[in-house]
Amino acid sequence: MDITTTWEKLAWDQGGKIVYIVIDGVGGLPHPEKAGTELQVAQTPNLDQIAENFIFLYFKGFFSSQQIYKIFNLSHPEQSDFITAIASLSDSFISSGKVVKFCKQADEIFEARMAALQSAQVSIQFETYIMTPGKRANDFAEILIKKASQGVKIKLLVDNYGAKEISSSYWKNLKSSGIEVQPFNPLSWRDPLYYLRRNHRKLLLNDLN
After folding, report:
1. Are 141 and 170 in contact (CB under 8 A)?
2. Are 171 and 138 in contact (CB under 8 A)?
3. With 80 as the cut, is the pLDDT of residue 128 above it?
4. Which of 74, 96, 179, 197 has the highest CB neighbour number within 10 Å of its CB?
């Protein structure tokens, strides 16, 4: 019997271990080219099991491209800046300041935002969750384009879901004016459940050095 028809290699290599499946319960030796390779033998799973495992791995983000981070020169826990370092690595941020005004109504918030944008001389960094089409969005784009033409460096971070109603031409118009626009967490087929992670921050920073 041709042993290459008895054994079938799976499509992936787990940690250097070549995994084989027994076809139809028939045993035998692995291919001669695999001599010395650790062999793991299992009965052929049925299609339902394969489908269930695939779906489980898919929604766990198994097929997504993972970011690998390496941390160098982290402060000792007894050092004063250790808490700040950990906060910045854990999706948190420690800051301090003085509240000079508190706005509750949408019109009041937008008026203050426009005034802050108008006063910017060097840079504008804007981060938000919800954006919808309309006069406010158009006025916002108009002043950003004006400030960009004056040499102000502008960066926008908008939630991909929260701003889904804004047309692509809106963002294209901003980008063509030299404004950097980044969507937060766009949907990826590799890890659809990760799309539930949204950015609810609302920040406007001017002239940060």
Report:
1. yes
2. no
3. yes
4. 179
